[in-house]
Amino acid sequence: xxxxxxxxxxxxxxxxxxxxxxxxxxxxxxxxxxxxxxxxxxxxxxxxxxxxxxxxxxxxxxxxxxxxxxxxxxxxxxxxxxxxxxxxxxxxxxxxxxxxxxxxxxxxxxxxxxxxxxxxxxxxxxxxxxxxxxxxxxxxxxxxxxxxxxxxxxxxxxxxxxxxxxxxxxxxxxxxxxxxxxxxxxxxxxx
Length: 191
Description:
By secondary structure, the protein is of the alpha/beta class. The chain has a single domain (25-189), classed as Rossmann fold. The protein is built from eight helices and seven strands; from the N terminus they run αααβαβαβαβαβαββ. The protein has helices at 3-15, 17-20, 28-37, 55-62, 77-86, 100-106, 126-139, 159-164; strands at 46-49, 70-74, 91-94, 112-117, 140-150, 167-175, 182-189. It has a seven-stranded mixed sheet, with helices on both faces. Helix 7 (126-139) links the parallel strand 4 (112-117) and strand 5 (140-150). Helix 3 packs across helix 4 and helix 6 packs parallel to helix 7. The longest helix has 14 residues, at 126-139.
């Protein structure tokens, strides 16, 4: 990560700590684990929520996601502008993840294969968390995967929401070398 990207990240965190929710961007091992959990490849469509300065985006691309199969939804205008310059051939939408279904449909995708989230989902009110997770599963193909990381010891989606939406959570990886240590979780629909 460049010094300019670190500076941008810290500035945005100072301005809105609850929305950014971390004092440091995701580390390289965490980013690689997120891309692996999404089963990235050139034919897989991926929606990324809250890409920030783009470290997970870089890992998705390094694992084979092509720019035409990558749709990033970023609420913060400074992060969105940065991402548009960094990834000019991918689609960056300045928007709210709670409107994911509408954004993906407007982009012309009937479905996607993975939704990869860098949002502080567990810290959000249940109503917002529910809108985001429901939105993800409304755009995912039947065998699609929702990928979310957390710094906590438990699944980063409310247990009641997991039950109501009939999801199967799985801890995909634990990254001790991330600062702070993090876990990557995947969520799929139960058959």
